[in-house]
Specification:
5-stranded antiparallel β-sheet, 4-stranded antiparallel β-sheet, 2 domains, Uridine Diphospho-n-acetylenolpyruvylglucosamine Reductase, domain 3, about 260 residues, about 35% helix, 14 strands, 11 helices, alpha+beta
């Protein structure tokens, strides 16, 4: 690890000010990506702004038509929340299968989506459930938030404060996990909210994406049978030591059908 300054603000404004005042600052949420990166000397920020003491970034609230989850809420808290389990059980189930117990008790929803790992689970929930990302500057629609591999629409000094998830009438997330890391080789979130069907895929491509053909098929018949003729192109999918692009294309169809069956 290289030497850096540590800031421990107690409020969002203080955290943003600390980052702006740094030569090359980084926000620290759960640290599941940043800490290993620092240990391997793959990054050398001048300052690290620890968000652990910012109480306003934590918590889960039921706002009627949506659940609002603070950015520093851990995966374990989302998974164990009675509110989440009763209102959006698919989201609680997704959180319960992220990594292992240690990761779930340290990792946060805000840190996960800000990092935008192409194999992370939460991006599928953001896009599939049509969530809204709240920051200290604005709100960002789900379809506009993820812009590429490890890239988002966030500005350099912008901090995620919360995420609002509309309550779906039906939803399920199914993934084929890497047996070691538990990251998604392919993960699919299927949701029906306000009469609209959305299908979001993570792990398969450089960034989360919507499967429009599946959405069209399900809009008139929300059943696994409606996806019987679904053909997923492998042309833009990832190919690595864990799975080829063709295998991932096959898994997208399999996981989509499983998700629809579970949601139904």
């Amino acid at each position: 690890m290289y030497e850096f300054n540590v800031h421990k603000p107690g409020a969002v404004n203080d955290a943003v000010s600390a980052l702006k005042g740094a030569e090359d600052g980084k926000f620290l949420a759960g640290g599941q990506t940043l800490i290993p990166t620092l240990k391997q000397r793959l990054a050398s920020p001048s300052d690290v702004v620890d968000l652990g003491g910012v109480a306003e970034l934590k918590g889960i609230s039921d706002e009627g038509g949506a659940l609002k989850i603070g950015a520093m809420t851990t995966h374990a808290e989302v998974a164990a929340s009675d509110t989440v389990k009763s209102q959006i059980p698919a989201l609680a189930a997704l959180a319960s299968h992220i990594g292992d117990a240690q990761v779930r008790n340290r990792g946060t929803i805000g840190g996960s989506i800000a990092n935008a790992d192409p194999a992370a689970d939460y991006p599928a929930a953001i896009v599939g459930l049509n969530a809204t990302v709240h920051t200290n500057q604005r709100t960002i629609a789900a379809d506009d938030f993820f812009t590429g591999m490890f890239e988002t629409a966030l500005n350099d000094d912008e901090l995620i404060t919360a995420v609002s998830f509309p309550k779906p009438s039906k939803a399920s997330y199914q993934k084929f996990p890497n047996p070691a890391s538990r990251y998604a080789i392919v993960g699919v979130m299927v949701a029906e909210t306000g009469g609209q069907t959305r299908v979001a895929v993570t792990g398969a491509a450089p960034s989360v994406f919507r499967l429009s053909d599946a959405e069209s098929a399900l809009s008139g018949n929300f059943s696994a049978d409606a996806l019987g003729s679904l053909a997923v192109s492998a042309s833009n999918l990832n190919s690595d030591i864990h799975a080829s692009a063709d295998y991932r294309a096959h898994l997208v169809g399999v996981m989509a059908k499983r998700a629809v069956s579970a949601a139904s």
